[in-house]
Amino acid sequence: PFEDAPLKFVQLVQLLRAASYENIDAIWAQFKAEPDFRHWILDAVPAIGTPDALQFIKEKFLAGDITTAEGEG
């Protein structure tokens, strides 16, 4: 199961690149309390590289929803 993790991560990034801020925020709201999912999302969002992704990180950091360490990915 873990050997396909890099491929799954790339697929997640590719899917999130097409997502709006609202989509990313909805995924976050659903999975932020799950440590493994939270980690994957916070690793993927900076790799997305879209204005919506940057807005997401900025707003979550300013709201205190993510820590400095988490925001650095």
Automatic annotation (TrEMBL):
Question: What organism is recorded for this protein?
Answer: Anguilla anguilla (European freshwater eel)
Stated name of the protein: Vitellogenin-2
> What is the phylogenetic placement of the source species in the record?
Eukaryota, Metazoa, Chordata, Craniata, Vertebrata
What keywords would UniProt list here? Glycoprotein, Storage protein
SUPFAM superfamilies documented for this protein: Lipovitellin-phosvitin complex, superhelical domain (SSF48431)
Please indicate which superkingdom the organism of origin belongs to: Eukaryota
The question of whether Glycoprotein is a record keyword is answered with yes
User: What Gene3D superfamilies does this protein's entry cite?
Assistant: Vitellinogen, superhelical (1.25.10.20)
Q: Name one GO biological process term.
A: cellular response to estrogen stimulus
Vitellogenin domain sequence ranges? 3-70
- One Pfam family per UniProt: Vitellogenin_N
MF GO annotations:
lipid transporter activity; nutrient reservoir activity
